[in-house]
TrEMBL record:
Pfam (any one): DUF1275
The protein's name in its UniProt record: YoaK family protein
Origin: domain of life: Bacteria
Alphabetized UniProt keyword annotations: Membrane, Transmembrane, Transmembrane helix
Source organism (scientific name): Streptomyces sp. R08
TM region(s), chain numbering: 20-41, 53-84, 105-122, 128-146, 186-204, 210-228
Length: 230
């Protein structure tokens, strides 16, 4: 009896780091980037749009330290990134999660890398604030579109944890018992907190340059190594 051998396309999809590990790594990057944007770019979130909309309300009410235009720039760039990601996904339509993951993460690495170059070229220059917000928010919007397309169970987003925390607690011992996705959800929470701590420390002690460079390098590594399997 002939042995069943995996097809070349299956082998190609399976080659690389599993998507679950990649997306959990991206939660760390999200926490890092939001720490950079909030602490270094004028109290604005570029990954967490829920927080950004709330902060926009603070700015609109005249709360000190907040700027409406900063938040509108972030929100607008993020939405444009989502639209771009959605259109690219439709045009590619290869059926390969590996290809889409690598293309989208490669684009994120380039965008955040350009932001890092700007931060290195003009450290502390307030004229770079809006370009940095726009580049990083666009990258996060593109990523959210990519994650939505990848449809990995229990990690529906790498930037917002409200639904993740709700599901985690609901499935906990205090709720209905641990569900099959509890470990992934718990690691996503830990990942984002860890990224925020690292990003805050780097921003407070070394400015915007190094955390942005680190985020770009991480996205680049994931772009080169992601597979199409969960």
């Amino acid at each position: 009896m002939a042995e069943n051998t995996p097809s070349p396309s299956y082998d190609r999809e399976a080659r690389g780091v599993r998507l679950v590990a990649v997306l959990l790594g991206l939660t760390v990057v999200s926490g890092l980037i939001d720490a950079v944007s909030y602490l270094g770019l004028g109290h604005v979130f570029v990954a967490n749009m829920t927080g950004n909309v709330v902060v926009l309300g603070f700015a609109a009410a005249g709360a000190p330290g907040f700027t409406v235009l900063h938040n509108l720039t972030s929100l607008g760039a993020f939405l444009v990134g989502v639209v771009a990601g959605g259109r690219i996904s439709v045009r590619m339509d290869t059926g390969s999660r590996r290809t889409w993951a690598r293309v989208s993460l490669g684009a994120e690495a380039v965008l955040v890398g350009v932001a890092a170059v700007i931060a290195f070229a003009a450290p502390g220059d307030h004229a770079t604030t809006y370009p940095l917000i726009a580049l990083t928010a666009f990258a996060m919007g593109l990523r959210n579109a990519a994650v939505r397309t990848l449809k990995v169970a229990d990690i529906s987003t790498t930037t917002v944890l409200t639904s993740t925390l709700t599901a985690l607690v609901a499935d906990s011992v205090a709720g209905n018992g641990w569900g099959p996705g509890s470990l992934r959800r718990g690691l996503a929470v830990v990942g984002m907190v860890s990224g925020a701590v690292l990003g805050a420390w780097l921003t407070l002690h070394h400015g915007l340059r190094y955390p942005l460079l680190l985020a770009a390098l991480a996205a680049g590594v994931f772009a080169l190594t992601a597979s199409g399997r969960e």
